[in-house]
Amino acid sequence: MRLAFRIGYWGDGFYGSQVQPEVRTVEGDVAAVCTKLGLFDDPREARFAFSGRTDRGVHAAGQVCAFTTAEPERAVAALPYELPADIWTTGWAEVHDRFSPRKEATARTYRYFFEEHPGDTALMDRAAQAFLGEHDFTLLSRRSERNPVRRVHAARVFDDGDFCVFEVTAESFLWNMVRCMASALAMVGRGDEEPGWIGEILRGEGERHLPAAPPGGLILLDIAYPFPFTPLPPSPKAEQALIRRERDFRLKKRVSAALHGLSLDLLGEEQVDDELRDLP
Q1: Hey, which of 4, 31, 91, 134 would disulfide with 66, CB 3.0 to 4.6 Å?
Q2: Which InterPro entries does this chain map to (predicted)?
Q3: What are the distances in angstroms from CA 123 to CA 116, 129, 195, 215, 224?
Q4: Is 110 annotated among the ligand-binding residues?
């Protein structure tokens, strides 16, 4: 039987999702757990595959992998509990024998969280509408031999608490395409470029490739298929790891703010001391 699993992961612990020799990858860890559980002996014979690759440091909430196994019940029951804490499941589905998670995806959605708020969210959202439709993204992606034309279904920029977020949905994406789009929007938000500049880039009028925004803010949010996934909650181990990481981030944020404030206070005291020492 062939199964598809929807998985999430923290990308900062991996050298990307795609298998590479002698480094930790998401595909490598998932395949190793499947082998350990006896779901298959050879990933190639099981036609083990992901819907696409994510770069080093990029996270996912809706990545999809598929494989063929003679032990489907064991796969559904055991896989969530055997995965490492920074990979987790959210759903599963029985699929046809020739199912390809990459070729049969109908759309992919990414969210990018800007590390620093670029500025004018409404202006960025207006600029993002230029991405809609079919365009040549040569100047908004890493150079490759692939066809640079992509069709974007939806794009928006909005505020989520303290963060500015860019969300985009397309049939497929080029290498670094979302992060380059985010860089372009940040330039508009800061006032470095006008919103119409995005259209000029898409028409090939730019003089250079734009740099990709840092990977840590990017999440592969969802991949759409013409069938539903049955919910498959993360294991308690993964849930606790997510809660612990969120708690650690809150603590680090608070400590960083405290250190910054205390450093400024001490700097102020030193400045006063210098002034006092200069008095006759």
Answers
A1: 4
A2: PsdUridine_synth_cat_dom_sf, PsdUridine_synth_TruA, PsdUridine_synth_TruA_a/b_dom, PsdUridine_synth_TruA_C, TruA/RsuA/RluB/E/F_N
A3: 16, 10, 7, 23, 29
A4: yes
Do residues 125 and 67 share a domain?
A: no
**Whole-angstrom distance, CA of residue 240 vs CA of residue 272:** 48
Structure-token match 């598809």, residue found? 4
**Computed from CA positions of residues 128, 129, 130, 135, in that sequence, does the dihedral angle turn out positive or negative?**
positive
Separation between Cα atoms, residue 134 and residue 140, nearest integer Å: 14
Same domain membership, residue 77 and residue 16: yes
Q: What's the Rg (C-alpha) of the chain?
A: 23
The residue range of the domain holding 272 is: 238-280
User: Torsion angle, CA of 61/95/233/252, rounded to 10 degrees?
Assistant: -20
3-14: pLDDT as tens digits: 999 999 999 999
Residue 109 domain-assigned (yes or no): no
**Per-residue pLDDT reduced to its tens digit, 181-202:** 999 999 999 999 999 999 999 9
Mark whether 7 and 95 lie in a shared domain: yes
The reply to whether 38 and 66 lie within a common domain is yes
In the DSSP assignment, the letter for residue 37 is T
Could you say which of 55, 86, 125, 222 is catalytic?
55
Whether residue 55 lies in the annotated active site: yes
pLDDT attached to residue 263 = 76
Tokens encoding 266:
């001490």
Query: How many structural domains does the chain have?
Result: 3
Domain shared by 7 and 98, yes or no: yes
Distances (CA, A) of 58 to 8, 44, 53: 11, 25, 10
Query: Any residues with CB less than 8 A from the CB of 16 and at least 6 apart, and which?
Result: 25, 26, 53, 54, 55, 56, 58
